[in-house]
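Good morning,

Attaching, inline, the backbone tokens for the sequence recovery test we're adding to the shared suite. The designed sequence is right after.
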């Protein structure tokens, strides 16, 4: 993986983002593919454009997309969410993103998270640092939870977790500087990497929601675990707790109390 390749990915995402913005706030037909999970023709066409473009950039890599599933070589594969935050997108809200990661033997080694509305572009290559709009991101500082802004997402896929979530959220709200639910996990986690959020937790995330941002966070020194404190597995873990040093330990104590 080199910077020329990541720049090609950025250019592709800019093109797909322009397509998405052309239809933003003008979506007429939306399908519900599962309970409270929506998809539009823009999601589907965006994924098709990404699959074709990424095939040109790295022909030997496979593809794993939210809308179309797995194709080709899974030892070296692109993991893609064409619109992370579809509900925001179809509702006319600006907080949505395109997430593209390259994974080798199941481990993300490069990632780009692009916010079409506003054009912010987060990118990282394993071992080469993380960037926002081509400016390097600093290593995260040690913080306390009391000075930390925490992001999260609702467990809409799992009604059995609703009560658990709100009890946990209440404890975190009391202990932290504040709590935010913006609606795009890929962006929320990019904000952790950049230091805009100091922590984040959510349940039921899919690999394509987090794969790109995982690279960003590792490159800036964030700590990523499941609710038991073990290293986070993007394919198998139900709960993600991600935060800067210091905050993570305190955040994990609260999350593990409610979810373990």
């Amino acid at each position: 993986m080199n910077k020329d390749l990541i720049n090609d990915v950025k250019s592709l995402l800019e093109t797909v983002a322009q397509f998405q913005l052309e239809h933003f706030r003008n979506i007429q037909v939306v399908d519900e593919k599962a309970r409270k999970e929506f998809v539009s023709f823009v999601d589907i066409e965006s994924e098709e454009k990404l699959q074709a473009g990424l095939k040109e950039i790295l022909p030997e890599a496979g593809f794993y997309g939210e809308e179309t599933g797995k194709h080709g070589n899974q030892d070296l594969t692109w993991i893609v969410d064409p619109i992370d935050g579809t509900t925001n997108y179809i509702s006319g809200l600006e907080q949505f993103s395109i997430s593209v990661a390259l994974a080798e033997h199941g481990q993300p080694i490069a990632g780009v998270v692009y916010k079409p509305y506003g054009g912010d572009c987060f990118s990282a290559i394993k071992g080469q640092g993380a960037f926002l709009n081509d400016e390097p991101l600093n290593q995260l500082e040690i913080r306390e939870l009391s000075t930390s802004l925490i992001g999260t997402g609702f467990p809409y896929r799992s009604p059995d977790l609703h009560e658990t979530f709100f009890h946990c959220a209440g404890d975190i709200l009391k202990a932290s500087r504040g709590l935010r639910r913006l609606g795009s996990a890929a962006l929320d986690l990019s904000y952790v990497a950049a230091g805009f959020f100091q922590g984040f937790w959510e349940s039921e995330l899919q690999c394509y929601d987090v794969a790109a941002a995982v690279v960003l966070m590792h490159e800036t020194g964030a700590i990523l675990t499941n609710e038991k404190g073990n290293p986070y597995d993007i394919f198998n873990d139900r709960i993600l707790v991600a935060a800067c040093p210091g905050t993570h330990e305190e955040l994990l104590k609260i999350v593990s109390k409610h979810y373990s």
